[in-house]
Each structure stands twice: as C-alpha cells, then as structure tokens.
Amino acid sequence: MESDNVLYGEQAIKNSQLERFSNRTLVRRYTIEFTCPEFTCLCPRSGFPDFATVRITYVPDQWCVELKSLKLYINKFRDQKIFHEDVTNKILEELVQCLDPWEISVVGDFNVRGNIKTVITSRHAKSK
Question: Which pLDDT tens digit goes with each residue over 100-127?
Fold first, then answer.
C-alpha cells in the first residue's frame, strides 16, 4: 500500500543545506579529499539518470564542511535535471560560498553514456 507520507530521509535531503565548522588547524595548510561514488542527477533533455563519481579536494582556510550536510547536499541532485558541466560548477560555487577555501577542485567523473565518457573539472583558488 502506497503512503503519501514523506520519508525522513527524503525530508532531510529536501531541507539540506551545506554546513561548516571552524578549521582548528590554522598553523599549516592541508588538503581534504572527499569521494562521492554514488552521485546521480537527471539529464535535462531525456530525463534519464546520469551516474558519476564526484571528487572534492580543498585546502581549508577558516572553515571545513560538515560531512553529513555534504552527504545530504550531494543527494539533493538525484531528482534535478541538470547538465554535467552545470552540476560540477554549481557544487564548486556553493562550496566556495560556504567555505571560502584557499583552493578547491570538484571533478564530476560521469559514467559512459552513448559511448562517450565525460569528466568535468572545475577549480577555484583564492588570491593570496
């Protein structure tokens, strides 16, 4: 029997926002890397799902991203119709807004579709 109730995970994803916490290691620059191997979004032309591994690498300044908020944020794209280039750059832009890191890159490594493999790399660096 189908239920009209929204599941708690769906609600958490719908209401998700990137969160940050203070970088407690300001005495040196260091790199943080995340791999999101189950990324999905929808093709805006066909509506078919696109699958990717998204890799985020950044050097924090004052802020670090909170992992649960990142997980929920990444899952928000599963029902969005968005091009590979746009979603990779959107993730980068929103992380830059949230964290203002020394440098950051986001790589969208999309699964083969129609015999074409697509990898999008977007980078940002602060002026020193």
Answer: 999 999 999 999 988 999 999 999 999 8
Contacts of 122 (CB under 8 A, 6+ apart): 88, 89, 91, 92, 105, 106, 107
Amino acid of residue 1? M
Q: Using an 8 Å Cβ cutoff, are 55 and 106 in contact?
A: yes
Pairing of strands 49-59, 32-42: antiparallel
CA–CA distance from 104 to each of 27, 29, 34 (Å)? 19, 13, 11
Q: H/E element holding 14? A: helix 8-14
CATH code for 18-125?
3.30.1130.10
Residues catalogued as catalytic: 43, 50
Q: Does residue 4 carry a pLDDT above 80?
A: no
From CA 31, how far away is CA 25, in angstroms rounded? Answer: 11
Q: What is the arithmetic mean of pLDDT over 80-93? A: 98
